[in-house]
Write a structure and sequence with these properties.
By secondary structure, the chain is an all-beta fold. Helix content is 0%, strand content 55%. It contains no helices and seven strands. It has a six-stranded antiparallel barrel with strand order 1-2-4-7-6-5.
């Protein structure tokens, strides 16, 4: 019996990995390269809490979620997911924990967060 329900995988995501800038003055200016495109996944937001923190004087709000997909042994925690489901505005999610195996390698689960500045947008 499978550890993932097929109906749970209702979102399309793109998986990317970081590529470091190897130039002398390129520290912190790397890019992202495509690992896989059009991967079916389930994205479940974690229930709301006061997920804000202060970083260099700027209040940052995090939006944690759980992402499940079919088992992929090559994914690592330094990668990111981008929700490319039609009608979604490209939600970028950094992996903060995982991968964890579901069942007997039926699927993989990750904890992710996307970030935004908190406060009045006006």
């Amino acid at each position: 019996m499978s550890g993932l329900a097929r109906g749970e995988l209702d979102r399309l995501i793109r998986i990317e990995r970081p590529v470091a800038d190897e130039s002398f003055d390129g520290a912190g200016s790397g890019t992202w390269e495509l690992v896989e495109d059009n991967v079916w996944a389930g994205i479940k937001d974690v229930l709301p809490s006061r997920a804000e923190r202060l970083a260099d004087g700027l209040t940052i709000a995090t939006r944690p979620a759980r992402v499940r997909m079919d088992y992929r042994p090559h994914l690592t925690s330094d990668m990111r997911f981008i929700d490319i489901t039609e009608g979604v505005d490209g939600r970028v999610m950094q992996i903060v924990a995982g991968p964890a195996d579901i069942g007997r390698r039926d699927g993989s689960e990750f904890m992710v967060e996307d970030y935004s500045t908190a406060g009045n947008a006006a």
